[in-house]
Amino acid sequence: MQKSKFRGSELEDILNSVSLGTRHLVAPLFVRDHRAKAVRRSLFPDFSSLSLEDTVFKVGQMMNLGISSVILFGVPSLRDSVGSDAANMSGIVQRTVRKLKEEFGEALTIITDVCLCQYNLSGQCGLKDSSGDAINNDNTIRYLSEIARTHAEAGADVVSPSSMMDGQVKTIRTLLDETGFRKIKIYPYSIKYASSLYSPFRSLAFSEQIMDHVHMDKSSYQVPFMNSRESIREIQNDILEGADMIIIKPAILYLDIISAVKERFQFPLAAQNVSGEYAMIKSAGSLNWIDEHAWIISAICSMKRAGADLIISYFWKDIAAILNS
């Protein structure tokens, strides 16, 4: 990695200039079932899925750096056509949530990803209809609400539906309220753009049963990058349905959307600095093509400057180290 032209104190001053602290960071972690096979890592520099035991250790390190929020993505050992393991109370996410709450209690805020792409054989974020071609929105949101309920029952503080299904927030909120989980918050991925920048995530979260994850097409339910008006409608619908915070991803290429949404709605907003953004900077840094630390800082600062209240980022360790230097 190219040596940074900035001293540690200068980088910290830059972060402080946009009022960014460790409280604004959410650490994404991939938790794998101990029975799962080794997963592909080549597209995701310096990042891997963790066993439950290693996740507890990693979260302890994270909290020592001042970061107290984590979002969990499950990597199960079982995939089937309907993603049945996603709502299993003995599933990897549910077990991990229970263990982390036992270890860290209320000091740790646990957000869980609520989706089907890691659990079904298609890699799609929803359930297929009877034809096997299109996604069945209504069946999917009913199942997402069941997944969210099991996460809440395990002890999650926040559930984060990321399937981009119409009505997912309302359906989840209704079931959580009916089953005694009124205090559980919902942070939906209100805008998830159809993007090639998710490939490193898929290389880590998807099993060997889904080889061609790079060319997977989810454009029927994810948002086209050309249409900002559709993005605004998606945000508005989720707020009306009961979202507590909205999430936009990717981040770096959509700072104009983050800024416009924050200005229009003045609503709590998180930006996800996605795996492709992380991988590009890390890979270029490893080849000495860029000043890696300077790029990380400028990228994170731009998200905070645009209006993000929280930043979900794989750079959490880099940023926390600078803030604690």
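(ticket continues) Second input and output from the same batch:
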Amino acid sequence: MSTRAPGPRPPDRGFAAEFRDAVTLRGVTLVTGVLLLQFGFILSYIGAFHSPSPHRIPVAVVAPPGVAEQVAGQVNALEGAPLKARTAADAQQARREILRRDIDAAIIVEPRGGTDTVLVASAAGPALAGTATDIANRFETARGRQVRVVDIRPPDPEDGRGLSSFYLVIGWIVGGYLAAAILGFAGGARPANRRRNVIRLGALALYAVVSGLGGALIAGPLLGALPGHFFQVWGIGALVVFAAAASTAALQTLFGRLGIGLAILLFVVLGNPSAGGAYPAALLPPFWSAIGEWLPTGAATTAVRNTVYFSGNATAQPLWVLAGWALIGTAVALTVSALRPERPTQVKEAASAGGR
């Protein structure tokens, strides 16, 4: 048995030299970027949720001719304009408008009694229905009348507070941008050429189909939170996952790994609080209420919720928004990679392959 003499110990480089090697400019830049995202996350969520207040919630007023216009005018004159009222011919029309998502509530004045009826649909968001009910209660109390609340479309019993659509969409969004980010790390944030970007986007499209299927199965048959409309929910899921993934791939193609941070900024920092999950747009501050319907998280939440509970009404715009993110993301990723010169390593690989 032989023993080897220990080799010479490396010279002590000193703390300063080790610090310079460990703390690089790139590392500091990345950590600073994470810190800014963290602060943005805190600012966005607290800014959106710290003081929800109603802004022009659309409602209908049903009352005898002459009285309806008067009551609607009184509703619109409330301090702070929490409601935006218009008249409806009868209670059936008001119900139809709520289910079509043209309005969020209705006040039905009963001229022969002292109790009026407020119609709401809490499946569109319990916070919104509760706020509309509270305002109507205070309004009617000031008029010396009582209120009876009728929820014409509550969430499914397994859907809790009607948040399953929102959480399902968050899972899809996270999966979409993480899948794109992982493929970016594995093959280079900026693909070497257009063909590789086509392959990446094709893989993401396949992932989106499987992800949409899995989410629809979990939310529907497995847990019963969003029963029915299985294939429609699957389709929405595939679309939103690919929209998030293709947009992330486009941002990576443009900005490299910085694109992942930009995707998180769009889809999480800005997208989640403005999506209409915990609080719908009518209760959010102006900035968040304005951007929510144009970001994939908000568009998909509305599309799933209205598909499951409101017979697919008011889903055209959300679906077009998702399709726009998917198409623009794909177009940008392919165009930029086609215009970018080939990398030197790729040229060498092609030359060596041709000389074999």
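Agent notes: DSSP finds 13 helices and five strands in the chain. Residues 205 and 228 are 25 Å apart (CA to CA). Closing as not reproducible unless the customer responds.
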